[in-house]
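User: Here's a structure from my thesis project, written as structure tokens. My advisor, Dr. K., wants to see whether a designed sequence matches the one we expressed. Can you design one independently, without my sequence as a hint?
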């Protein structure tokens, strides 16, 4: 068997694209980290308190908001399925519209909910 027949012509291009994307991702993370470190060092040299600026994020609130959005997304899927079952089939754009509508409502509700600050 000829080894050149094992590689499809489009396969090389896709491998190069994936490797390029991964290289860009790694370089982006590296330069963002490097710039953040330089910024912190400059602030420390000027005498600023870095702990006030770079506070750790409260991931609990973020996850609670994300959970509210996912609940409304699931509600949108369930409502679209109920409409589909009751009506007996319709356009798929109607399903997407209902899911997007409920997800948007979930985003609004998640932004207006006041989560407990002590928990």
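Assistant: Designed independently from the structure alone:
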């Amino acid at each position: 068997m000829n080894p050149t027949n094992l590689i499809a012509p489009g396969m090389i291009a896709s491998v190069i694209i994936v490797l390029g994307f991964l290289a860009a991702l790694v370089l982006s993370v590296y330069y963002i980290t490097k710039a953040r470190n330089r910024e912190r060092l400059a602030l420390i040299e000027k005498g600023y308190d870095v702990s006030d600026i770079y506070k750790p994020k409260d991931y609990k609130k973020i996850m609670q908001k994300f959970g509210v959005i996912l609940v409304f997304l699931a509600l949108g899927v369930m409502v679209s399925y109920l409409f589909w079952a009751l009506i007996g089939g319709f356009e798929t754009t109607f399903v997407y519209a209902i899911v997007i509508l409920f997800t948007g409502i979930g985003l609004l509700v998640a932004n207006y909910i006041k989560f407990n600050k002590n928990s």
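When you compare it with your expressed construct, this may help: The two ends are 66 Å apart (CA to CA).
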